Amino acid sequence: MTARVVVLLGPPGAGKGTQASRLSVELGLPHVSTGDLFRENLAQGTELGRRAKAFMDSGRLVPDELVLEMLFDRVARPDCAEGYLLDGFPRTLPQAQALEQRLEASGASIQVLDLAVPDAALVDRLTGRRTCSGCGNVHHVRYAPSRVAGRCDKCGGELKQRSDDTPEVVEKRLAVYRQQTQPLEGWYRSRGVLHDVDGDRAPAQVFESLKRAASEGAAT
Ligand code: AP5
User: For a FRET experiment, which of 107, 168, 172, 188 has its CA 20 to 30 Å from that of 81?
Assistant: First the structure.
C-alpha cells in the first residue's frame, strides 16, 4: 500500500495545530508536529530540547540538521507506516527537499494544504493563545475560552502562555515565516500538490475545507 503524507502549511497561528488534531482522526493518520516534538524534548530535559530552546524562544528556526534527524526518527516508527499528517514541517527548502527524497524513495504520495490568514488575525490569535501545561490542548482567551478560567477543558491542567507567543517574538516568527517558509508555496504549487485553504473563518468551516481539499487531492 502507498503511504500517504499530508502537510499542513501556513504561518504561525494559522490554526495548523487546532485543525491537525481533528484532521488526523478524520484521515486516520498520526499527527506529527515538529514544534510539539521539540517541546516534549524540552520537557524531558534532553540535549536536543536544550539546543532547540534558544532558537524557539527568539522566534528563529531550529537548524535543519536537528529538525531532520528528529523528524525522520519519529516517522520511522510503526504508527507512520501508512502515512502521517505533518504540522510545522517542512519550513525551509532543504527540509522540503529532504522530505521529497525520502518520499520518492518509498513511493509515498504527498498533499500540501496551505492555510492563509491575514497578519493582524495571526497576531491576535497567537498573543491570546493559552496552552495546557498538562496535555498541550490549546485555548484562546476570546476565540476558544476555557470553561474555568486558567484551567484546561480537557484535563483541568494549568493554562499558560507559550514563551514564544509574546508580541515581540510573534513579530519575529512572522518575519521568519515570510522569508524562509512562504517560498515553499511556489515550490509545492509547481509540483501540483498544493491546495489553498482560507483559514480566516470559523474553525468548523476551515475543517470542512481541509477535508474537502484532502479528499480531492487523494482522488487525483
Ligand atoms: P510550532 O510549534 O510549529 O509553531 P508555529 O508553526 O509557529 O505554529 P503555532 O503552533 O504557533 O500555530 P498553529 O498554526 O498551530 O495555530 P494554533 O492551532 O495553535 O513551532 C514553534 C517553534 O519551533 C518555531 O518557531 C521554531 O523555532 C521551531 N520549529 C518547529 N518546527 C520547525 C521546523 N520544521 N524547522 C525549524 N524550526 C522548527 O492556533 C493559534 C490560536 O488561534 C489558538 O489559540 C487557537 O485557539 C486559535 N485559533 C485557531 N484556529 C482559529 C480560527 N479559525 N479562528 C479563531 N481562532 C483560531
Answer: 188
**Which of 115, 125, 197 should be mutated for ligand 1, with most atoms under 8 A from CB?**
125
Distance CA 71, CA 214 (A): 22
For Cα atoms 56, 142, 10, give the angle at the middle one, nearest 5 degrees. Answer: 45
Question: Which residues line the pocket of ligand 1, CB cutoff 6 A?
Answer: 10, 12-18, 33-35, 38, 55-56, 59, 61-62, 67, 88-89, 91, 95, 125-126, 129, 138, 140, 143-144, 164, 173, 202-203, 206
Interval 23-62: pLDDT, tens = 999 999 999 999 999 999 999 999 999 999 999 999 999 9
pLDDT band at 1 (very low <50, low <70, confident <90, very high): confident
* pLDDT for 193 beyond 60: yes
pLDDT value at 205 more than 90: yes
Q: How far is the CA of 82 from the centre of ligand 1 (A)?
A: 25
Closest CA to ligand 1's atom 42: 125
pTM score, whole prediction: 0.95
Q: What is the mean pLDDT of residues 130-149?
A: 94
C-alpha count within 13 angstroms, C-beta hemisphere, residue 81: 3
Q: Which domains does the chain have, with CATH numbers?
A: 4-29+82-219 (3.40.50.300)
DSSP lists the bridge partners of residue 196 as 114
Nearest to 98 by CA among 62, 51, 65: 65
